[in-house]
Each structure stands twice: as C-alpha cells, then as structure tokens.
Amino acid sequence: MAGGRPWGPSGPGADIPVHVKLRTTDVDEARAFCRKLYYGPLRIEPVGDASTFLFSADVVLLGPITLGEVGYGTDIRVSIAALETSYHVLMPLTGMLRSRHRGTVVYADPTRAAVYRPTGDIELDWPGTCRLLSVKVDRSALERELDAALDQRVISPLPLGASFDLVDGPGRTWAALVRLLLSELRGPDALATRPRMAARWRDMVVSGLALSVEHPYGEEPAGLQGPYRPRTVKRALDVMHAEPWRPYTIGDLATVAGVGVRVLQESFRQHVGMPPLTYLRRLRLDGVHAELSRSDPGQSSVSEIAYRWGFTHLGRFAGAYRERFGVSPSHTLRGRS
C-alpha cells in the first residue's frame, strides 16, 4: 500500500489526496481491503478459476470522492447491501460487467457506465476480463450539487438513471476527467496533488456527475438547462411529476403555468430541451419501465401497467417504449423473472 498518511475515507472537504493500492492472490485480503475502503456489507466470491485470482486495486481518496482502478483476474460475484451513504459509478475499461440493482439489469462496458443509488442491494457478475474505474461519491455531496443546479430542492435519494453513455455527450467528458484525475493523483509530484488544485478537481468530479447522470428533472442534464427555471416551467413540471398519468393537453399545462401555449413551448425548449408533451411522454415511459422492471410477470401485465401510467393506445406506446429503451415492454417484464 502507499499513501502520505494513514489511509481511510477522508472527511468531507478534505483536500489532501490519499493514494492506496493492493495486489494480492488472497481472497480474504482483497475482501478486507474493499470492505474497509468502500462498504462493510460486501461479499466477494470467486466463481471462475480460483488459481488465477489476482486482485489489483489502485485507489485515491479525496474528500467526498473515492476513485479507483480495480480488477480481479478471474470471474467473481460481488454482493453489496444498500450503500446508504453513497452513490457509485462503475466504468469498465475492458470487458463487460453484469449488474443488477433495484430490479434493473445493466450490462456495463467501455461504452456505458452503471450507476448505483444509496438504496437497494447490488449484485455484480464480474468477469476476470473486466477491469474498471470505480467512482464513489458521498451522498450528501452529490445531492447538494444537484440541488444547487436547480431552483428547487431535490428529493433524497436522487432517482438517478441506472446507466449513462460514455461515448457521447457529458458522460464521455466526465469519464475522461475521472481517468485524468486518477492518473494525476497517483503521481508523486503532479499539480493535482496540491490541496488547492485537488479541491477544484474534486468539485469538478462531483458537479460533472450531477450533469452527466439521468434524473427526472429533464432529459438534458441540469447543467445544460441552466441553473434557473422560470416559475411557469416549474409549475408545469410539478403537476406532471405529481400526476403523470393524467391526460394533460398542451392547453391544460399552459393554463397551470399561467401563460399562453406558445410561451410555454418556447420556455420548455429553452430550459428543458424539449416540448412539454414530449417531456410528459418520457416521464411516463420511465415510470412504466421502472414498474415493469420490478413487477412479477405472473401477477402483472404490460397493458395494465401502461394504462396506469396514462397510455391508452398500446400500439403507439409499444413503439415509443422500444425506441427509448431498445427492447419491448414485455421483454422488460419477462426479465424480472
């Protein structure tokens, strides 16, 4: 192991990075390292050739964030109880990771990251070919950052999306930032290791994640919408989130907002990135997807869940669902079994 002072999670606001690493063929030693550095209720079980087990971790702790490059050398299964105090992102550098969290299965690879909320157990099927970047962010730090980017208080825990794109958009930039910061902080004399610079890098990682991951405040990341939303837009968003199944028309939403239809449409285009009814449809689709993901196919049907979320034309619904999620609604429901 390496580090300038006794290692362990730094307190919020700490600006001095702590670099630690471990390379071992001992499963118990690897398990103890991960429990101390990440989460106590964590289980690691080799399911591949145990003779090729070679745990390798190179990790930097910096205030509310923990960045690391991790691999196991053989196929393993990881089980983690609810994170509670943190949000977490896994970004494979090589190979593919199968993740199950809150009823949703995500296949993470170098093109797509897996995201974990503080609630809900996690199960990972981690091949020996998969080496990844692990980013742990304190719950309060990310929630404060997203709250500051909006003109309203966010709910806790944040209802984040289960994954995000690493090839295009803000996710690509954020992943590059994490890789660069980890590389810099592992060097002994890098500029980023100086406390004032380290604090700025730390803040960029937290704010960048808040702008990259999906959340229900609009399809575009909050930072691209601008920090302020007019009250007219907020009123329309509030009623849509409160009762997304209601058959709102654009006229209904304009009346709620207290402006004309054209003004509301232009305000949404500027501050949300899409028309009001497009936002409403995506909000409903995301609600259906979440419910299908956690429902028992023996007790629930696609049609009843779709109707409950305000979709009355099942053909158009199925087409919109496939366009958004890449699979049919029935495939999502069957995947729960």
Automatic annotation (TrEMBL):
Keyword Transcription part of the UniProt annotation: yes
Keyword field contains Transport: no
Entry keyword set: DNA-binding, Transcription, Transcription regulation
HTH araC/xylS-type domain location: 234-335
GO molecular function (one): sequence-specific DNA binding
SMART domains membership: HTH_ARAC (SM00342)
Superkingdom of source: Bacteria
Protein name (Swiss-Prot/TrEMBL): AraC family transcriptional regulator
Organism annotation: Actinoplanes lutulentus
